[in-house]
Amino acid sequence: MFSRRFAPILFLTVLVPSVHGASNSAARVRAFASLPDWSGVWLSAAWPLEVSGRVPGGEAQLKEMLQLIRPPPYNATWQARYDEAMKDTAALAARSATFKACTRSFPALMEGPWVFQVVVLPEETLLVFESNQVRHVYTDGRAHPPDDEIWPTRLGDSVGRWEGDTLIIDTIARKQEPVAPRAWASTLSERAHFTERLRMIDPSQLEDRLTIEDPIALAHPWHITLTFKRVAGVNRAIEYDCAENDRNPVVDGKLVITPP
Fold first, then answer.
1. Number of domains within the chain
2. In 80, 170, 188, 250, which residue has its Cα 20 to 30 A from 51's Cα atom?
């Protein structure tokens, strides 16, 4: 997977609904004043990209830093399925050799090489990625939709609440597919439940403590900590067309780089 260091991201104009009346009401001003400032441009700490768009240590460094490529704590049934899939090294190598994507599912999106911005509003928090994907985390007290009104999607359905300066995110209804690129044999059931504790640990770092529970696939909860670094020298977001700027065609079963 190749990415430019400071690839631009989608600029989002948010039309904010009012709180108990006019949008400039005293109640809304107080609501905004209570929220943390997570402005700026962020990137997963697993991707310290050089100008070339590559990690300095290459694939070996990525495998050391990426959390989601590690084996999940499966129960016996799913572990046997995982072990069998891992034996098919030819299939795994073929998927890795031809892998390219303009989008990712959750939680892989949170550990991707794409920069993002965070828009914190009283009603919801949005994570806006350069891949043109947006995670909506509703914090207005709503619950997940009932079973007969919800269906699995790549990003799932997320609701949240604030505990001080920490955003607690609850996500369900995520499609069953590989947990992340480079982890093609790792899957979760559609009953997987994700809980995140997202907070700023210092002015240049966001931390996401992710717990994955799956009564179908996992023997016990899977705990992962993701870290994001503030990107310096970038002061605006610009739409990025991944398909139009695709320089990595697959030729004869291999991913190649086409000069600009």
1. 1
2. 250
In a domain, 10, yes or no: no
Tens of pLDDT along 117-133?
999 999 999 999 988 89
How is 118-179 classified by DSSP, letter by letter? EEE-SSEEEEEETTS-EEEEE-SSPPPPPGGG---BSS-EEEEEEETTEEEEEEE-B-SSBS
* Joined tokens for residue 46: 């697993």
Residue 1 domain flag? no
What mean pLDDT, rounded, does the chain reach?
Answer: 85
Q: Does residue 19 fall inside a structural domain?
A: no
How many other CB atoms are there within 10 angstroms of residue 124's CB atom? 20
| Separation between Cα atoms, residue 134 and residue 230, nearest integer Å | 18
CB 134 within 8 A of CB 126: yes
CA angle 69, 153, 145 (to 5 degrees): 125
Q: Which amino acid is at 62?
A: L
**Residue 247 in this model has a pLDDT that exceeds 60:** yes
Confidence category of residue 243, pLDDT binned at 50, 70, 90:
low
Instruction: List the domain range (segments joined by +) for residue 139.
Output: 26-255
What per-residue confidence (pLDDT) applies to 140?
95
41 pLDDT higher than 70: yes
Alpha carbon 93 to chain centroid distance?
24
Say how far apart CA 37 and CA 48 lie, in whole Å: 23
Any residues with CB less than 8 A from the CB of 237 and at least 6 apart, and which?
Answer: 8, 9, 10, 11, 12, 41, 117, 128, 130
